[in-house]
Amino acid sequence: MDTLSLAPQDLVRKAVVEVAQLPENELLVVLEMVDALKRQRAHPNRELASKIVAQARKRAESTRHLSREELMKQFSDTFEAIRADAIAKNTAIEGELESD
Fold first, then answer.
1. 3-state secondary structure string, 14-34?
2. N or C: which end of the chain has fewer CB within 10 A?
3. Strands (E), the chain
4. Residue 54 clears pLDDT 90, i.e. is over it
């Protein structure tokens, strides 16, 4: 039976039957997964946001010793590399920036 072609009520019925046949220790795993899905649905971007913040803090710590001028040079070089790559892939247009 292809679960992708099932109607929603049939999916629920199949899920209930499958879960009902699981041993108790596996039921606990299912409940944990359902709880994790609920939390994710309630705050879908929270986990991603916390990862981004952690990466930003790590990067900030690794560049703490650099002067403002050195940081701005790194930023400019990175920006130009991204821009050049976008132009090469035809996802940006040469002259798109006012400084071009």
1. HHHHHHHCCCHHHHHHHHHHH
2. N
3. none
4. yes
